[in-house]
Write a structure and sequence with these properties.
Elements (H helix, E strand, L loop, with lengths): L4 H9 L7 H13 L4 H17 L5 H14 L15 E6 L6 H13 L5 E5 L5 H14 L2 E3 L7 H14 L4 E5 L7 H18 L6 E7 L5 H12 L4 E5 L8 H10 L3 E5 L7 E3 L2 H8 L3
Parallel strand pairs: 1-4, 1-5, 2-3, 2-4, 5-6, 6-7
Antiparallel strand pairs: 7-8
Helix pairs in contact: 1-2, 2-3, 3-4, 5-6, 7-8, 8-9, 9-10
Length: 290
């Protein structure tokens, strides 16, 4: 069984009465192994070294507290997002195939519906027939409406029809799925630009959010995915799946820090209700427990 983030750090600092180069090297190794990324890891190490030079500490527990504070400071705060505007709040979901994007959309549909909001889904991933069928199933599970067309339809047209229908029907939240192909970044950029433009025509000022869905268990691949999608379109927030284990939890810190993108939601299991708004203090606290 893989060691948790906390177990790795505990080994690095256990019994240390002072922070020397060996201690810093051990902490650095533990952070890199948790997939925090080299750049973010070095930020933590530099900040820790600076604090240790200024502050006295007498136990490993105090050193762990310093680490927790420095790691927490690297995660952008997630501001309040008000979806009750008297018009549809449009969320465009992006991410590669296999990260749980469509599942996340389905969970979010149930999440918002459970808060008394009228929700509509848009099946704009028309590249794969399975994707349209999958989001249809999630719409039925969540008890929300869906706009879908045939496989191969223009994704931008589907997005336009979805938002137009949502406006006409007085929906509160619109969640639009997109294709997860990354084989050609130019194609990805062009497709997402067309979808965004269509959404903006149907409802000026939309989309309100562009959520990048990443899988916490994929480690360094999450960084490359974030990089490609950030180049293709403006990302406003992250939705992180498969965060029920903490061994690779550092990737969330690294991606949020390196791309300065707030984390909006985390998936905590397989059920339709297993999603929650991200709480930075709660998340970092979990990293630092067994």
């Amino acid at each position: 069984m893989a060691e948790s983030f906390f177990q790795r750090l505990s080994k690095a600092v256990l019994g240390k009465s002072r922070v020397d180069d060996d201690t810093l090297d051990s902490i650095e190794e533990a952070l890199v192994e948790s997939d925090m990324g080299v750049d973010t890891t070095l930020k933590v190490i530099d900040a820790l070294e600076d604090r240790v030079g200024r502050e006295k500490y007498s136990s490993s527990a105090e050193l762990m507290d310093m680490l927790r504070e420095e790691i927490s400071a690297l995660i952008p705060q997630t501001g309040e997002v008000d979806v009750r505007k008297g018009r549809p709040h449009v969320i465009l979901a992006v991410g590669v195939n296999g990260v749980g994007k469509t599942t996340t959309i389905g969970k979010l549909a149930a999440y918002y519906r459970g808060r008394g909001l009228k929700v509509m889904l848009g099946a704009a991933d028309t590249f794969r027939a399975a994707a349209v069928d999958q989001i249809q199933i999630w719409a039925e599970r969540a008890g929300v409406e869906i706009v879908r067309q045939q496989m191969g339809s223009d994704p931008a047209a589907v997005a336009f029809d979805t938002v137009s229908s949502a406006v006409a029907k007085g929906m509160d939240v619109v969640l639009i799925d997109t294709a997860g192909r990354l084989h050609n970044r130019i194609d990805l950029m062009n497709e997402l630009s067309k979808i965004r433009a269509s959404i903006g025509k149907a409802l000026p000022g939309s989309p309100d959010e562009v959520l990048l869905v990443i899988d916490a268990s994929t480690g360094q691949n999450a960084f490359s995915q974030a990089r490609e999608f950030a180049r293709a379109t403006a990302i406003t927030g992250l939705a992180v799946t498969k965060l029920d284990g903490t061994a690779k939890g550092g990737v969330v810190v690294g991606v949020a820090d390196q791309f300065n993108i707030p984390i909006r939601f985390i998936g905590t299991g397989e059920g339709i209700g297993d999603i929650e708004e991200f709480d930075r203090d709660k998340y970092v606290g979990k990293l630092f427990t067994l």
